[in-house]
């Protein structure tokens, strides 16, 4: 504990209370204006039908609570010079955040046409939920935001990711009670078990219980305060409650509780930074219970609105056709006394405006919410120093991800506070364990003697939750740092929707001029479908590739390095990049190594190309054997070898694709190769037998529009699998070297296909294989080697 | 409270203790045998290298705990005649469950070749984790299982879904401490807020803390009992702890705690069923803390194993090459005293075997875990009674999902305990609110006066968690009941991986002869990408179609009904079906109605066909306008109308596709149409302009292999969107009627394409549209109608 005297939260004096309430009323007023008004923004004239928008869109229910928190945080930011951003978890919080950032002036800084006067206010109102205008969720164009309020569940993950290695940052994270029902949110309270106040910033979670979702009650709202206290204390938080519907009472209580929380966080940090961290601190958390649609219409048409689900969206509708409703709206608008809040020009009164902090301390202008501004490039060691060297190609098996692990270890060392690996407890299993030479697993609770590389100071983020890993990494990169999410391939689909939403964010951000480029979100999928032979069917699924290829081309990249040197080259490229989702897929098991480092660099830079050293006749081939992915590459090269032996007259070209998007026509993806280059690699009309890591349809999807697309015959994963041998996996999915050879015989010109010996050989081996699998129980031979060598 | 005297848990007598421990030792022994032995199954001979499997696979760590629970549940099932199944949440629990169901005889009932003697035991050992053999996860072939242990996070969801409307069922659900870190698991504790003991069965969750995941400590294991108590009490549970590493002590404690929990559940149920339910009961929950790999080797090579992550998988390796390790294994096997447990023939001693309940009460034989046996068909009202009738086609707009809602309401009435709708708080928003005339929302906590159709007795399952909805419905259908999961289209991707895993389950189950057919899992995706104009970009994503089409064809079905009558016909078909994932996509907004009920039935039965009434010249067309999905159908028909007006010489055929899988070649999907039928509908060579609801690549993927595939020009969602008008959405994604007409001009034979008037008309309207959107802020005209009518 620090020896410094404890700072004590002080009650609001009457002037502070007046000003905070004024700010809050102004923000609430601006929310209503955004929903309803297309003219008469300050209701200086009697409200008429023609002042009302033709279509009423937007959500009132959550706004008063979001505004309350914003107003009070403003006071504390100024008082304590806090470095703070605001994340609004509740859906449809857009108008609230927009109102506040307009009041503080940030909005006008970013959008000068939305001036800080009556004309700007009207523009603010009219652009909201208008075609091509401003969405009802907090989103990319909202100043101060790095969290979209559309798909619920991730606000705490983004918040905690943002504060990792960001010691001065405090994120005020508002969790909606609807959102709190989602699995990802429920699983993210535990993030404090991974936050070390010595080096990380802090998150102040505020659970805002307003009782209802769209139409049903929320689970937590129907639990008692005693229940909630237990629930959060059990997870390590110190809980404080603020509850009520009288604004002045709530202001007073909330000011005390919020200030106490901020002071407690500063104490925790000061103590840890002076004395080190001995145990997980009890981080403050606030539960705020206020009515849904607070200060809105109490009753409309005899039905209760405020405090019920009916206040979720537009609390009083049909305002253009129902004069009584119009009157309710008018009274509601006047209830905030806009004439006290805004001057004759529609500017916020200076004394109220002074509540906001200045410059970059304003939550709408804090560069932490435009993390590209803060991005330091990674210091990358020379990846070629880790290269695999070999005397002879394709002889020795080496674990490619283990080699990457050594590279990542050195990245950790060179970037101690600018890089983290996120992984669901599989760093060792994925053979990346070399990183533990540079950093431990992070856990900020009791460490026990038997633990292996676990410490409070560790920066390898292992938690058995793909949601946590993805969400934390998003928050980390959105605030300008770098990282890698490594996971078992099949379980990447758990975060399909998170990948989609993050892709939308990045894509949208590229179109918002003031958003700076952020580090890419890098995925390493390993423990792949082809080599989960011992884990069985549930672990076999390459569907995350499908998820990435349908993202907007400008943000989506998919790499299938076939060996360690290619992996190093691809990883180096991805870690330098900005604004992408980079998907890298490669297995962790020892595998044959195909290219020297020099060859790999040339090959990866081009993304796809002919491999003459594995082709019997790369020029004017009778058949092209193409492949993408490590196991498909092995099967393809083995097939080429078999063909050379058994059908030496056949001219075979082997093509490997590392950068999957190069297959796309150039007008469909920035990496798409020109038709000329495509023909150079795949010829204009030669049949192609293509072995692919994922679902075959993906290749057809990408190739659409290429000349003579129908000559491509794709083998890939077709949802066949069980606990079996690696070779049986490729047989079950009909992608084995034998199947590829049979395909060659099927598709090459007829005169070349009459190789009965080859066909018989392949069929005999397949029959033998089946018998071998069938007999396995009884004779237990050694598992047959499936290497390229015969 | 019932007046019946309370039953009290009784301590184990010495004989019970001896037998339970014997069962437990036997199960543990069989676990080790599965990992290690290929001969000498009862270690009657000195253990030699040749008795050891060539490759050591399997997971020991979690097994002793799973076995302990199984043994103790056996006693209570017999004592109280419980109807109980066992769900093993921890990954790699396969060998434990297999050991127990073999001991109780269920395994041999299903697999007679695995006899209940030494030969059968050896077979059991040898088939485990062998190519083509038995996986290390609890999985489809495991008797007694409806929960796969591969992808972690869903055990409680499956358990709670299974007990809904299943009043006699008790599910013993073991939650691993690794699994407990996942988001979906963390979000599923709240399931008790939706369980009504009057009509539902019960779940007994047992959180098994053994401290470690693969290599790192678990979050919960490092929290205190006081923390855990608070965490669970805060959510409504009554928590009991059993902790220790001395088997006899743990047996005694666990027996008392488990019996108390079972009795408490029976009390809760008896009370609620006699006296009604007044408030959510405090359901029992057990936390079991025992060492990882308990009773395994304590130390190997000087390193601690038992109680650490090193016991996760194979605790002593290299047994074939390290004589010291071989000796450790031998001593370990002997430590269970197999000679006391099994007779000379390798049969379990009769007095131990008697611990198991008889017949269908055995957890491996309970029909609840083979739910197809219990499936009652739905009583389906005549769906044609809900049909839309119209005077004139395509004039009036009606909400198709609202019409489905009325049908679902009547299904609820006809099947009060055999059908449920699962929805993330969007039943009204998705326009299915008619169901509330038949049933309320379910919530088993405080109901407040302002609540709308919320009650303890409700069977409409609304929770803001797609994971809960999907997982509960899986459990519900796996035990033989029927349901529908309705959600916003974009957020279906949240459960991509759950859909994949359930598809794998169904597909695998079809290949396991004793598994009976179960009801399909039906999805209704509405609030689609094309009509989330006010919700914006985050709500626009049709990617769940991609997820379903890459499932094994035998289980995957995708339907895109274009109007209400087609939706009724498709829904009726899906609800009758078994063993599928049926995906239905249709928007909720009022939409034009195209087909009479009679036409819809014919059209849906065929799945795709020509619509002569919307074609200018269905025979020998110059161009085929194809469509799949409601908005694409509208744009296509509008394009056909425009073409008829402006290019009357052009022969246009309109084709609609309801059943997406019909596009596949017949050898790739059971619904794939023959080439002859394909040509009949799409012609052999006429250009096709195809408007599709989802990503265009999906169509190219499905069409691959069709003749002249390159003549198909697909428009669809291409990740363009924002808050805008419906018509702007189709413009942004270049799928509007105007874009389709321009495509027609691009692709029809040159002589027909010289219609300058049409091209100019379309281009002028597109320019006007853009200007209109741009100017919208300033002049606020009414949003332009985008109907078929001009």
UniProtKB/TrEMBL annotation, chains A, B:
Q: Which InterPro entries match?
A: THDP-binding (IPR029061), Transketo_C/PFOR_II (IPR009014), Xul5P/Fru6P_PKetolase (IPR005593), Xul5P/Fru6P_PKetolase_C (IPR018969), Xul5P/Fru6P_PKetolase_CS (IPR019790), Xul5P/Fru6P_PKetolase_N (IPR018970), Xul5P/Fru6P_PKetolase_ThDP_BS (IPR019789)
Highest taxon, organism lineage? Bacteria
* SUPFAM superfamilies for this protein: Thiamin diphosphate-binding fold (THDP-binding)
The Gene Ontology terms for molecular function here are:
aldehyde-lyase activity
Cofactors needed by this protein, per the record, are: thiamine diphosphate
Tell me which UniProt keywords the record has, alphabetically.
Answer: Lyase, Plasmid, Thiamine pyrophosphate
Q: Which residues belong to any copy of the Xylulose 5-phosphate/Fructose 6-phosphate phosphoketolase N-terminal domain?
A: 14-373
| UniProt-listed Gene3D superfamilies | 3.40.50.920, 3.40.50.970
Q: What PROSITE patterns does the entry give?
A: PHOSPHOKETOLASE_1, PHOSPHOKETOLASE_2
Task: Give the record's GO biological process terms.
Answer: carbohydrate metabolic process
The Xylulose 5-phosphate/Fructose 6-phosphate phosphoketolase C-terminal domain extends over 588-788
Family (UniProt): Belongs to the XFP family.
State the name under which the record lists this protein.
Phosphoketolase
Write down the species. Answer: Sphingomonas panacis
The opening ranks of the lineage are: Bacteria, Pseudomonadati, Pseudomonadota, Alphaproteobacteria, Sphingomonadales
């Amino acid at each position: 504990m620090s020896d410094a005297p404890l700072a004590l939260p002080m009650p609001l004096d009457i002037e502070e209370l007046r000003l905070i309430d004024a700010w809050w009323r102004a923000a609430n007023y601006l929310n209503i204006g955004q929903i309803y008004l297309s003219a008469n923004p300050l209701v200086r004239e009697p409200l008429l039908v023609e002042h009302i928008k033709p279509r009423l869109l937007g959500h009132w229910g959550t706004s008063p609570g979001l505004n309350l928190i914003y107003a009070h945080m403003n006071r504390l930011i100024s008082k304590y010079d806090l470095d703070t951003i605001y994340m609004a978890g509740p859906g449809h919080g857009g108008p609230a955040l927009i109102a506040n950032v307009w009041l503080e002036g940030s909005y006008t800084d970013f959008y000068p046409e939305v001036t800080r006067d009556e004309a700007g206010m009207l523009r603010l109102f009219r652009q909201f939920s208008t075609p091509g205008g401003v969405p009802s969720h907090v989103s990319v164009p909202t100043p101060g935001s790095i969290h979209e309020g559309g798909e619920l569940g991730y606000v705490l993950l983004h918040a905690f990711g943002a504060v990792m290695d960001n010691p001065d940052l405090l994120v005020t994270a508002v969790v909606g009670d609807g959102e709190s029902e989602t699995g990802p949110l429920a699983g993210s309270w535990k993030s404090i078990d991974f936050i070390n106040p010595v080096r990380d910033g802090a998150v102040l979670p505020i659970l805002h219980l307003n009782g209802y979702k769209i139409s049903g009650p929320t689970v937590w709202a129907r639990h008692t305060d005693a229940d909630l206290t237990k629930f959060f204390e059990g997870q390590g938080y110190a809980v404080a409650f603020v509850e009520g519907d009288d604004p002045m009472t709530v202001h007073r209580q909330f000011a005390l509780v919020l200030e106490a929380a901020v002071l407690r966080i500063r104490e925790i940090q000061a103590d840890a930074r002076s004395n080190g961290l001995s145990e997980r601190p009890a981080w403050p958390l606030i539960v705020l219970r206020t009515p849904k649609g607070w200060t809105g219409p109490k009753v409309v048409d005899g039905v209760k609105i405020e405090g019920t689900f009916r206040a979720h969206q537009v609390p009083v509708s049909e305002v253009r056709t129902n004069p009584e409703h119009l009157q309710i709206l008018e009274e509601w608008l006047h209830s905030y006394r806009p004439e006290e809040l805004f001057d004759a020009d529609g500017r916020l009164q200076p004394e109220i405006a002074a509540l906001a902090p200045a410059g970059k301390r304003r939550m709408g202008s804090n560069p932490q919410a435009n993390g590209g501004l803060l991005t330091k490039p990674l210091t990358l060691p020379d990846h070629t120093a880790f290269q695999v060297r070999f005397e002879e190609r394709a002889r020795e098996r080496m674990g490619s991800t283990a080699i990457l692990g050594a590279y990542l270890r050195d990245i950790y060392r060179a970037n101690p506070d600018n890089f983290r690996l996120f992984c669901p407890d599989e760093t060792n299993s994925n053979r990346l364990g070399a990183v533990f030479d540079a950093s431990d697993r992070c856990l900020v609770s009791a460490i026990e003697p038997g633990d292996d590389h676990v410490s409070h100071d560790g920066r390898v983020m292992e938690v058995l939750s793909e949601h946590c890993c993805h969400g934390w990494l998003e928050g980390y990169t959105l605030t300008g740092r770098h990282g890698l999410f490594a996971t078992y391939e099949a379980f990447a689909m758990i975060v399909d929707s998170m990948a989609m939403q993050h892709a939308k964010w990045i894509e949208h951000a590229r179109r918002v001029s003031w958003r700076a480029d952020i580090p890419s979100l890098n995925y390493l999928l390993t423990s792949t479908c082809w080599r989960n032979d011992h884990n069985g069917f549930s672990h076999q699924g390459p569907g995350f590739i499908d998820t990435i290829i349908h993202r907007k081309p400008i943000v989506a990249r998919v790499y299938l390095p076939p060996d360690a040197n290619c992996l190093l080259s691809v990883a180096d490229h991805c870690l330098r990049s900005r604004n992408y989702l980079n998907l890298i897929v490669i297995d962790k098991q020892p595998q044959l190594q195909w290219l020297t480092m020099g060859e790999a660099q040339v090959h990866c830079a081009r993304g796809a190309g002919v491999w003459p050293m594995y082709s019997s006749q790369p020029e004017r081939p009778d058949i092209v054997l193409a492949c993408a992915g490590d196991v498909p590459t092995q099967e393809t090269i083995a097939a080429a070898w078999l063909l050379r032996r058994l059908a030496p007259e056949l001219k075979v070209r082997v093509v490997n694709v590392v950068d999957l998007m190069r297959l796309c026509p150039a007008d469909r993806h920035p990496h798409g190769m020109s038709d000329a280059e495509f023909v150079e690699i795949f010829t204009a009309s030669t049949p192609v037998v293509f072995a692919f890591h994922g679902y075959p349809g993906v290749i057809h999807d990408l190739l659409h529009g290429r000349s003579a697309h129908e000559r491509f015959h794709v083998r890939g994963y077709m949802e066949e699998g069980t606990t079996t041998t690696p070779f049986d996996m490729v047989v079950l999915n009909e992608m084995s070297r034998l199947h590829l050879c049979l395909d060659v015989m099927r598709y090459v010109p007829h005169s070349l296909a009459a190789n009965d010996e080859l066909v018989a050989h392949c069929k005999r081996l397949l029959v033998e294989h089946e018998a071998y699998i069938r007999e396995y129980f009884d004779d237990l031979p050694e598992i047959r080697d499936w290497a390229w060598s015969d």
